[in-house]
């Protein structure tokens, strides 16, 4: 399979066409493109010509020729990417001999003392870049001006290649480059919650892109395009299967299917991981138990893991969701999470694999505030996990809310490498029809200070290993990728996939920088476009917070599908599945008291954090109702009381969607018609949904506050009963 | 929505780019295309430049300018299609003023006495073409040479436009045209077996393209592309929903979603139809019964249908699967199918809608040969259906087998318009990984002689209404369309969608002609390519018959998913769901005796047909085991006995797949790399599956025949137990 992309290029020469033919074809393709054929499939790698003519001329002068040694599949990809990228961007045929030009050679090579990278003296720079980091430097070698892309491994060169192409895509100056870039985290992963039947849990962009039925014989070209897209943003691992796991994936026929994907991904530097169903020894091993201390169980996993590595020698490891939401786990046998994780870790250690054990656990038998349960379960286990175990922690303690204070586990398990789990798919942020650019959400968590080793112990530094000196470190995002032609359904949601990759590589990047890169590559380098769209993107998530979950409200979404508002639901089996559990609105006030007078979830944070949030007067208002039950009459900094502040936020949020609609309309000159129309329709839908959220929530909370909606706002035109009557039995993603 | 495609084109002029820019963009697009970017999304409308240079020159001379009055959405589509099509095909910018050229004007207009169509004297020709037929004629008008595309309606002009583009795509001479084309059938439909949750029953190309959740607010560009593709082959109706129906589709929110699709499809001449859940009055109407003779039930349907027409004024009507495979129906109330159909027909008649009532019925309480049950149920009802009811009959009496004798209902209900139901999706023909070009299957049924009004009363003439003078007539195909980028999964399966449309328009077209058109447009006009690929396509279904269901075997596929062989299955609840019911292999012989000594299903055919098939010596061998239980030692015309003939067919079938693989490899110079690789992989899979079929079936039947596989064939390398052990719990399409 890895040959496919290569043969595509080499075969160009085989297709014989006259010059007239080429011009004709080119014209027709151009017109087709102008006519609106941008489907979004190309993501941020559209490689359309640089539109700034002086810059284009300058690029053309500086890149006369490329030189790539194609000694490995990865380096062949490097070469092909440079050819297709530069051909598109520079609008000229790219010389690949590396010899013809006096000046302007672009050279991509894995560090070679005898090659240009060696002659250019780049060795010392490469001492900082590890296995995956790269250097891009302008150097004169043999009297010729070179741009050299290099690294210590082939994959590093591929990362550098995509970075270099990004410089041109975003119209940066390349005349004197000295870029050294090393990923801040080792594991940069996507988690696919994809099922055997191709449904995707919390997926809103069609079905799973993995067609398990036709694997391994048929390699959908999309698999390769997927790997390429991930490599372009530095993602180096993918968990193919849902954390709500199915043991069938561990059977021999399915391992062959996984192998086929691993083979397709390998040249792009991407390892495959699977989710392990803890009870697999019973379900497919025919054992009577899955007790992690049972020798037969241990042997079964040893054998199974050896079998996997025979098929996939560079298999990454397992992600495990255990004893959570009905999944089996070690606690079924009165063992701890560490017992379970270490059993798997011992079995996989000889093969250099790792176990990623999820901390997202809560139990309906436990009356304690759900916010506290992961901490209670896991902190006592700190130091008890094997060295090849990571504990994967969601950004917050509840569940991927539009806004969520950082998880108290960050900083609380210094002896254990914690992996970040973000959600790229927008389960709770409007799903497939909402623009919520998530970089600001990711950044907000990453920049939160845990104070675990004093001020500056940010979540980012906890998970990149620098606070507690962990060699294993990483960040994962629950994928928003599906079978829709544009991968993510909402064309602008591609930016969230992009942001996850970029932040996993470098969490110091700002949201604005990420938005800018993505917008330039995906749409346009036009300044007027960017000056509107960068803030529009970066403010979009805050807008969603305003009209869904303002001032610390959370988890008041519709039952099960989490689509739309349903703060009134109170009849579900498990108390913590009911929205009323979270908002606790009553005649006196609203919000969840997590202070020492309430659930004392705040007791799980460092004293500095606890103190800040414990005091209703110092707690940031954005988190107010998260930590406090606040009287309706409580005065906010704005001078409004809590009820008025809710009204203000809900109305302002909806209004801001309207403003996004209006701003977007003005972007028409800069955007291809197809995507312009798609996004226009989606903003219309989002506005309707914002009104729905606003009206439903305010009408409901008003039954407690007993206060009027301020008269400057238009009254809801539907009744609370109407909103309560809505049902979405076929909402996607369940 | 209907505006979208139009704005795409008009907006071209708004995008300002320099000439250098245009050349650069064109070159980059060209190189991208050469590099293998053919995803298949464009179907047979790729509009790549004509590669025959003299012909291209001649086309360019003959089409200097186009003139289209854009007075309706449909005519705007005509104009856009001509612009994008001719720009691509001719590789030049198309003048649209209609004035500049002295000669060579392409004019598309709905017949207009004062326009070129009138001046050219085309009125008389248009008297033959009805509402949908078109004329394409070369005429001199006002001293200028015109090619005139015209018809009595805008839609007719659109059909003519696609036909004209097809002439150029397939490199036909256009210098002196006089084409008159009128569809042989009024209703040319696709049936989508698509469910609310986006699964597709018997779908093998991803999920449903209908995203019910984001409708009506979001119109996926694919909906418009779908309508355009259908219009290009004359399809004018689509049943959006599965025949195993869900009443939810009839609720107000879903009718708004259906309306959004209807609006998108309307300019392309496509009406929407839904499936009616017979028990909907109970499920969503809260009635206690769905008895068709109950006045409340009748009123409920009257009201519901009026509601639908208020939302969708040109709604097509309902398709109903009743009292079949567990679906509710009038027999639940001891009423007949006619009672049920007429109740709906009366309610929909004032709105000019129709009811399509399926004859695919069989019951597990009925011990009679399943082959006979539809006939037994329906023939007594002939003449009892209202005039706006059609009865939709599958091509054969069992269920879309690889080969099936024509259904005995054809010709047996002269007073009732019968609609043909073919299956385009390959439920029983290898599903998503098999090339089975179905035009020969469709043709085989259509050309079968029912003898109902004497010799020449072919099935085609029964369903086109000419045998019994029915004004209502039509042909439907169960769609093979899904969310895969190339629509149909297997790139070559697009040809089956194409064939369905072309044959519904003109059933006299040969399979070879259809294959040729499709191959020329979808791949290449190269003569060497066509001379290999036309026969390869046309023989492919016969190959599938050979290695799956030779000499009249049928329905021996895997349980429920119908993937792969499982002739041994005998434990399912309903006798007629078990393969053993159909092949009846025993120590004496094999096959289903449907003669007068057996089930006498043959008694349902006209005497001429019955006589031919009743006699084991005159029955075509391809149907032998369909109608006869034949001793293992029976001598076939080949001189082989039945067992040897089975061996011959199974081995030859697999061998022919190998030959297709080899032939395809030689097509590499003519095919873009992406599709070449995809099809190569699929032929590899198909070969493995052919071996599986061959080995599994022969090893199983050998347990009855007790005869050896002839020694000239390689022995199966797996055991029967191995094949019996295979399970596919997550096979698609269930």
Describe this structure in words.
The structure is a homodimer of 734-residue chains. Helix content of chain A is 38%, strand content 10%. Chain A contains 24 helices and 15 strands. Chain A has an 8-stranded parallel beta barrel with strand order 6-7-8-9-10-11-12-13. A 5-stranded mixed β-sheet of chain A has the order 1-2-4-3-5. In chain A, strands 14-15 form a two-stranded antiparallel sheet. In chain A, strand 7, helix 9 (252-265) and strand 8 form a beta-alpha-beta unit. Chain A is globular and about 80 Å long. The two termini of chain A are 33 Å apart. Chains A, B: Residues 43-164 form the Alpha glucuronidase N-terminal domain. Chains A, B: Residues 168-487 form the Glycosyl hydrolase family 67 catalytic domain. Chains A, B: Its EC number is 3.2.1.131. Chains A, B: Belongs to the glycosyl hydrolase 67 family.
Write the layout of secondary structure elements.
The structure is a homodimer of 734-residue chains.
Chain A: H1 4-10, H2 19-34, H3 53-62, E1 65-68, H4 73-90, E2 105-110, H5 116-119, H6 123-126, E3 134-141, E4 144-151, H7 154-169, E5 178-181, E6 187-191, H8 221-232, E7 237-239, H9 252-265, E8 271-275, H10 280-283, H11 295-311, E9 317-320, H12 337-348, E10 354-358, H13 370-378, E11 389-394, E12 418-423, H14 439-446, H15 459-463, E13 474-478, H16 494-505, H17 511-522, H18 527-548, H19 579-583, E14 589-590, H20 607-614, H21 624-627, E15 630-631, H22 642-665, H23 673-705, H24 720-725
Parallel strand pairs in A: 1-2, 2-4, 6-7, 6-13, 7-8, 8-9, 9-10, 10-11, 11-12, 12-13
Antiparallel strand pairs in A: 3-4, 3-5, 14-15
EC number (chains A, B): 3.2.1.131
Organism (chains A, B): Terrimonas ginsenosidimutans
Domain Alpha glucuronidase N-terminal (chains A, B): 43-164
């Amino acid at each position: 399979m890895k040959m496919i992309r290569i043969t595509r290029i080499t075969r160009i020469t085989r297709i014989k066409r006259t010059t007239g033919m080429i011009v004709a074809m080119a014209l027709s393709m151009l017109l087709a493109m102008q006519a609106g054929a941008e489907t979004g499939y190309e993501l941020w790698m559209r490689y359309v010509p640089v539109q700034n003519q002086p810059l284009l001329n300058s690029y053309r002068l500086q890149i006369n020729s490329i030189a790539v040694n194609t000694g490995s599949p990865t380096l062949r990809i490097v070469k092909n990417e440079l050819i297709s990228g530069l051909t598109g961007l520079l609008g000229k045929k790219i010389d690949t001999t590396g010899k013809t030009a006096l000046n302007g050679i672009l050279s991509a090579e894995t560090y070679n003392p005898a090659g240009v990278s060696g002659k250019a003296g780049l060795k010392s720079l490469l001492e900082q870049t590890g296995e995956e980091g790269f250097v891009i430097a302008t150097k004169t070698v043999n009297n010729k001006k070179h741009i050299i892309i290099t690294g210590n491994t082939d994959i590093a060169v591929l990362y550098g290649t995509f970075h270099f192409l990004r410089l041109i895509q975003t119209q940066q100056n390349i005349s004197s480059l000295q870029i050294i870039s090393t990923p801040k985290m080792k594991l940069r992963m996507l988690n696919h919650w994809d099922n055997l039947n191709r449904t995707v849990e919390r997926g809103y962009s069609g079905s799973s892109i993995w067609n398990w039925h036709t694997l391994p014989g048929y390699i959908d070209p999309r698999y390769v395009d997927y790997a390429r897209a991930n490599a372009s943003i530095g993602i180096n691992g993918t968990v193919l299967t849902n954390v709500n796991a199915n043991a069938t994936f561990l059977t021999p026929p399915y391992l062959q299917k996984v192998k086929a994907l691993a083979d397709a991904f390998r040249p792009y530097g991407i390892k495959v991981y699977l989710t392990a169903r803890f009870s697999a020894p019973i379900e497919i091993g025919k054992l009577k138990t899955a007790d992690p201390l049972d020798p037969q169980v241990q042997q079964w996993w040893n054998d199974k893991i050896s079998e996997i590595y025979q098929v996939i020698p560079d298999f990454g490891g397992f992600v495990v969701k255990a004893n959570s939401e009905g999944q089996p786990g070690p606690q079924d046998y009165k063992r701890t999470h560490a017992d379970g994780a270490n059993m798997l870790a011992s079995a996989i250690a000889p093969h250099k694999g790792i176990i990623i054990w999820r901390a997202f656990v809560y139990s309906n038998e436990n009356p304690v505030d759900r916010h506290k349960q992961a901490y209670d379960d896991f902190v006592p286990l700190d130091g008890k996990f094997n060295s090849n175990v990571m504990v994967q922690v969601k950004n917050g303690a509840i569940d991927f809310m539009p806004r969520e204070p950082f998880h108290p586990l960050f900083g609380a398990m210094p002896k254990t490498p914690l992996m970040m789990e973000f959600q790229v798919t927008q389960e709770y942020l409007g799903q497939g029809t909402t623009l919520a650019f998530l970089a600001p959400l990711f950044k907000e968590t990453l920049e939160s200070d845990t104070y675990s080793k004093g001020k500056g112990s940010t979540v980012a530094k906890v998970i990149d290993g620098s606070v507690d000196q962990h060699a294993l470190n990483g960040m994962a995002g629950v994928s928003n990728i599906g079978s829709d032609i544009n991968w993510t359904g909402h064309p602008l949601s591609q930016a969230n996939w992009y942001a996850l990759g970029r932040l996993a590589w470098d969490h110091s990047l700002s949201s604005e920088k990420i938005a800018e890169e993505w917008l330039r590559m995906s749409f346009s380098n036009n300044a007027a476009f960017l000056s509107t769209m960068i803030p529009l993107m970066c403010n979009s998530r805050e807008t969603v917070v305003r009209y869904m979950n303002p001032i610390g409200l959370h988890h008041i979404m519709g039952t099960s599908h989490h689509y739309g508002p349903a703060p009134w639901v109170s009849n579900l089996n498990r108390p913590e599945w009911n929205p009323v559990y979270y908002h606790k609105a009553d005649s006196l006030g609203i919000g969840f008291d997590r202070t020492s007078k309430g659930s004392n979830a705040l007791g799980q944070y460092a004293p500095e954090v606890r103190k800040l949030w414990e005091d209703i007067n110092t707690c940031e208002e954005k988190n107010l109702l998260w930590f406090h039950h606040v009287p309706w009459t409580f005065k906010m900094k704005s001078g409004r009381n809590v009820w008025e502040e809710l009204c203000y936020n809900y109305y302002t949020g909806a209004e801001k969607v309207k403003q996004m609609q209006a701003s977007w309309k003005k972007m028409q000159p800069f955007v291809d018609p197809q995507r312009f129309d798609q996004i226009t329709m989606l903003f219309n839908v989002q506005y309707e949904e914002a009104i729905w959220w606003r009206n439903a929530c305010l009408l409901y909370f008003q039954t407690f506050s007993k206060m009027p909606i301020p008269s400057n706002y238009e009254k809801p035109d539907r009744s609370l009963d109407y909103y309560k009557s809505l049902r979405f039995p076929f909402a996607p993603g369940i």
